[in-house]
Queue: 4 jobs
Job 1
Amino acid sequence: MKFLQWSVLPLLSILASFLVLYMKTSSKPSNSDCSLLPHDHYWIYSKLIVTPEGIINGAVEVKGGSIVSVVKQEYQLGKVKEGHVLDYGEAVLMPGLIDVHSHLDEPGRAEWEGFFSGTKAAAAGGLTTLIDMPLNSAPSTVSEETLKLKVDAAQEKLYVDVGFWGGLVPDNAFNKSSLEGLLRAGVLGLKSFMCPSGINDFPMTNSSHIKEALHILAKYKRPILIHAEIELDSVSPVEPNDGIDDVRSYSTYLKTRPPSMEEAAIRELVNLVQDTTVGGSAEGAHLHIVHLSDARASLDLIKGARTSGASITVETCPHYLAFSSEQIPDGDTRFKCAPPIRDAENKQILWEALMEGHIDMLSSDHSPSVPELKLLDKGDFLKAWGGISSLQFVLPVTWSYGRQYGVTLNQLSSWWSERPAKLAGQGLKGAIVSGNHADLVVWEPETEFELDENHSIYHKHPNITAYMGTKLSGKVLATFVRGNLVYSKGKHAPAACGVPILAK
Ligand SMILES: *[C@@H]1O[C@H](CO)[C@@H](O)[C@H](O)[C@H]1NC(C)=O
Ligand SMILES: *[C@@H]1O[C@H](CO)[C@@H](O)[C@H](O)[C@H]1NC(C)=O
Ligand SMILES: *[C@@H]1O[C@H](CO)[C@@H](O)[C@H](O)[C@H]1NC(C)=O
Ligand SMILES: *[C@@H]1O[C@H](CO)[C@@H](O)[C@H](O)[C@H]1NC(C)=O
Ligand SMILES: [Zn+2]
């Protein structure tokens, strides 16, 4: 009897641990792993809740992943006090940020970023939805099949919700069934380049390709997004070591991508959407210009077209609003991106255009690579990979650099949530109103921090960011995705329960 007990017990415990292991690997995360909160019906209190009607002092009631009521303190607080309450006091409660321009690079280049690290960084930064770009993964998202590879690769790796843009390339542009297949499979719109993209399986498109896509997109009521730069004959490429220009000097790079490249591309696009004989706005198509850098002639063209009724929106990125070309140190290729960061006066005009509503929204254009491709040791601006890592910091960066221009919380929310939601066709996201997804961020605008190597950064390559060493204001305390508390005070939920967003 005794003998039996001694020999059976270890056996049982081994069996039990196999069972636990089996359950861990074979079962989907349980609801409690998705959230740092134990319940799914609760109230979030804040004295500064950013709603479309303005800032209120009150509570947001969350149930089953949605916002079920938004109440002002004066007349309702007594009633809500009984349930589960998270009281954030003076911290701001805003809609979660929606980034319409992230490169998550998976499948195929997960060593550059990946769904897991990218969305983990997003959650820590108060972003609740990302729209992934069709290039820098391998293969690019240019067909129904390649979209499926994306969605499969994203399974159980998403801390926030992720939608996908499809790629418009010469290969699918004239093939209606291919483009429609991609749209029916769920991409939220199409993206193309008017200059080489730097990725071999993502060649550039010309105006004929874009025209074809506009016709089809109008039918699906989804936008086309364009990287608007055209290579001009008048701009002679600078060859490295040609004895005249120093490849380590930022001004050398700047000369290779002048504002006239953006202007030429935008002129072509504006003509395209205004030509009523070829579709475009007249048919209900919408054009979105990504990462505008040139605040002068290019922006004037966009303003003009909008005045005459063209359906065009435009985004710019925090790095064009935070940095200027004059400040970029020699050889510091962390600042390389395309179009390039321009002079201080250009930055000032971009801010003014944003404040006046001529620029609609912001996006990160988070576009990392493996550190080796940034060529930090050589500092060669012409050969280094172009792309700035920033996903986790876009909220404090926009806020910190915008304060001198008088940026308000409602503007932040419009640029980062409301308008991006509209562009991506996400009617249940982007605003704190009853019925919407409970996608929320709580943050402290006044808390300052210096971004150094001791700060928890969740991007795959944390120290390759142009923001390292900057002093920022605005600390994210908590992030909710469809009611799940996915990030709180430096901790992430045990499981990644964001979902892929596919258009229907
Ligand atoms: C169009 O794309 C489909 C795949 O969606 C492919 O089967 C077909 O061969 C393509 N047609 C042409 C003319 O390239
Ligand atoms: C665009 O490229 C296609 C080839 O893919 C060509 O047939 C077409 O003429 C070009 N359009 C323009 C405006 O250059
Ligand atoms: C990071 O933390 C370490 C250990 O606390 C400290 O020695 C170092 O100075 C910190 N680095 C910065 C940039 O503050
Ligand atoms: C990034 O961090 C790693 C590990 O701490 C370090 O070895 C590397 O030199 C850093 N790179 C840069 C560009 O700071
Ligand atoms: Zn990009």
Note: Residues 170, 206-208 surround 2-acetamido-2-deoxy-beta-D-glucopyranose (ligand 2) (CB under 6 Å).
Job 2
Amino acid sequence: MTEHIKLFIPGPIEVRDSILQAQTTPMIGHRGKPFEQLFASVQRKLRLVFYTSKRVLVSTSSGTGLWEGAARNCVSDDPQRGVLAGVCGAFSERWADVCARNGKHVTTVTVDAGKAIKPDMIRDAIKARNEPFDAIAIVHNETSTGIMNPLADIVAVVKELSPETLILVDAVSSLAGVKVDFDGLGLDVVLTSSQKCFGLPPGLAFAAVSDRVLERARTIKNRGYYFDFIELDKFLQKNNTPATPAISLLYALDRQLDDMLAEGLDARFSRHARLAGLTRQWAASQGFALFPEPGYESATVTCVSNTRGIEVSALNKYLATRHLHISDGYGALKGKTFRIAHMADLTEADMQELFSAMNDFLH
Ligand SMILES: *Cc1c(COP(=O)(O)O)cnc(C)c1O
């Protein structure tokens, strides 16, 4: 086996050995008592991490599957209503596209890459319409540009102007690294994937879902089966899943949730903020600018503008010799930016190891 290369990319992120090991627990059937106990244990702890007393659906898929689920369960086929999507980079653009591919009418509010969606833009989009939108789709943390959108302020505008509009949040690269208060903010769907701030291997996705969503879903035809929230909720109530879940990943999740709660959620969020601060400082100290507009920088992934014109692929080639790996810019931002993830279980020592290796390359 070649030596392991530590991942500082925004998914899949580095996974600790003890979490990888938890996946080797002997297999059980998913229709027996031991599985029910495992699933109940996971559910109780997931609700703490999502700050909800409602329910957290668990899907054997990546987060993209729940994008489809959110569109199919929350948005009717009525073109007068449809979904309002904030677009500020590659992931938010793709979610809007996924809504359209599921036959939903999509209205977009678009900003340039590196900019955040502002509450007033949402205010204008809602006011420009006679009928309320069925739903609004917001990506909390746009991983392609390192932008964190002002979620609470956007939510306040929707609640004020269009209370019946369901609020759907992609928190794929923020949840468990940043507090996303589902019940406190009155959100309707908050979805995330296992391979980002949860620090697990890819393959599971989670969505907190409000009662309003299930009521809405009952009125909507053609929700499909695999991502039908009503079906998932029905089985969840019996601590089970409609189809065979990724049981090995659930063992890893159970273990990781224990570790997360032992660290303390507030401490976990502070650690993410601290590592983000260190990464921004490192960038400035080496003469790089940050790509996001000031005030909206992500706490989980830093998108650095390549203002020094370095060859990002050469940097990563060098980092590989030090058993480290960062991310190039996403799509059109390749070479113009590079991204450093500081999420999940990464520590200050991990970041210092990375900074010192990058400094050796730069000098
Ligand atoms: C990674 C990511 C996705 C896609 O999630 P998958 O688990 O790869 O399907 C969606 N949205 C954001 C913001 C992401 O960072």
Note: Residues 288 and 307 are 5 Å apart (CA to CA).
Job 3
Amino acid sequence: MLIKRRLGWEMPESQATPESVFFNRRSFLGAATGLVAGAALPQIAAAEGDPTLDLYPAKQNPAYTLDRPVTEAELAANYNNFYEFGTSKDVVGAAKRLQPRPWTISIDGMVEKPFEIGFDDLIRKVTLEERLYRFRCVEAWSMAVPWTGFTLKSLVELAKPQSGAKYVKFETFMNPRVAPGQSQRWYPWPYTEGLTMAEATNDLALMVTGIYGKPIPNQHGAPLRLITPWKYGFKSVKSISKISFVAERPKTFWEGLQASEYGFWANVNPEVAHPRWSQASEQLLGSRDRRPTLLFNGYAEQVAGLYKGLEGEKLYM
Ligand SMILES: Nc1nc2c(c(=O)[nH]1)N[C@H]1C(S)=C(S)[C@@H](COP(=O)(O)O)O[C@H]1N2
Ligand SMILES: [Mo]
């Protein structure tokens, strides 16, 4: 039986971390960087010797612009949700156990021919670009980040799905020896997410391999994660090891844990409150700025059409 618990990340940011803590942390980080100069960088920079370093920085796609400043890299890199490595925001240390090499991704289900591909081979078959995206966590905090990646659409083309495939299902690696959180049996591991084929082939859906012009560090979901900027952050599954094309809507991790609060669609909507807090506004990470939340996180023009005829669905939870 599922016991109702208050989970760390379910708390709205305003309650979880008072602004003063943000500011203290920010000035602490600033001071630390100044004091030890480059020594603070390994926290955010990918390991030396990363075989994809030559691909960074990728060319920025000018079509994606922001209405707010880019979040400081150090802040984004030290305030994470990655339940495999703990339920606090401070998972950088624990996530060092994750070994993003060698890394194989299985592509299976309803495809012409299932296959496995090494991450370093996959990344050479696609075109990397950098995009500035807003990112909105369901907890009501947000950031704005330069992601590097390739379109999920291009991966779908490589996978060659059959016509019966209706959804794409993503799974994070499963290894409790590496990720202690996965020993907690009440969570429906592995972390699973899904998109409809129409969502997956929308140009906004990005398979992310890098952040701030470098290969993505462990705590952000190395070596490969999803980013769907019009949806709440929990859709953006990290450290993906399996991608399946399926006929049925996959049951997602948070749905499995608390279906009354987290749904499949999870589109950002300021007018639809979470059962326990408002979604009307959001706290910008590392700032005093609280802003009104935008429908589809500001990406309505690109994605609203995906939901025509689905008005009966719980599109915004
Ligand atoms: N595998 C996995 N992916 C995950 C999560 C997680 O706990 N495990 N947390 C999600 C949530 S709730 C958010 S807000 C984002 C956070 O991404 P970031 O830490 O890179 O900012 O990752 C998402 N992807
Ligand atoms: Mo989140």
Note: Residues 19-36 form the longest helix (18 residues).
Job 4
Amino acid sequence: MAEGNQTVIFQFLLLGLPIPTEHQQLYYALFLLMYLTTVLGNLIIIILIRLDSHLHTPMYLFLSNLSFSDLCFSSVTMPKLLQNMQSQDSSITYAGCLTQMYFFLLFGDLESFLLVAMAYDRYVAICFPLHYMSIMSPSLCVSLVLLSWVLTTFHAMLHTLLMARLSFCEDNVIPHFFCDMSALLKLSCSDTHVNELVIFVTGGLILVIPFVLILVSYAQIVSSILKVPSARGIRKAFSTCGSHLSVVSLFYGTIIGLYLCPSADNSTVKETVMAMMYTVVTPMLNPFIYSLRNRDMKGALARVICKKKVFFCL
Ligand SMILES: *[C@@H]1O[C@H](CO)[C@@H](O)[C@H](O)[C@H]1NC(C)=O
């Protein structure tokens, strides 16, 4: 297969996390626990929303989509990381690496778009409460979700195809725990200018536009509350937007921390820690943020459990 003096790389080595060997087992247990919590928490949310008809509102259908996306997002990286921590062989095939990168981008972007859809939903709910049901019709919700899927599929595909053009030479060690796009670009021995330009442009669009849209809808919400300030209105706004705002801050907070804060010389460790934050911690916390303070979710849980054990509850 290799022609001329160019070697073809069939597999990469994932260097994993910068953890001292004596602590490997401790961290393994910790990450396993976090991953299982993520899977379980998000599955419970999806099942609960599916089963309880009180939760068949746009907000909860979006939340269910967000949980699905969280579940997939952490499943793209975590199982492989856990497997590599246990086995001595930390290789990943070239195709596996590109596949991981594709799904990482797909579900990461999907989350960003779903957060916009949810912000729009809150904006309509607070600023046009009387027209909420007619504006947020089932067809609009389905269209918003479909549009998110189409845009992120296209975006992830674009980067994956651009990456597939590049050739890799001797160096095949990725100093990361998954096939991160920028880590792969650094390894490549081809010209990566086009890739960098596309990352810069689309990355800006895909992160900045959703962020601005979310800010705009919250600005509208705040100004509509300030127009008729009442304790009840403020409480209502906080109770319906609080969870969403926490998730948004968590999601964009880590991204802004990662890309905008000046990084010191030892940036690999910082990058890995931040990547850990958004691949593991954010997807794990989302279900808790939405369910702990939420009366609807607690009520739904009680109803679903009671329906199954009807005799105990009566
Ligand atoms: C995602 O949202 C759409 C539209 O609201 C809904 O029909 C669908 O059931 C949701 N999917 C999941 C997995 O919750």
Note: The radius of gyration is 22 Å.
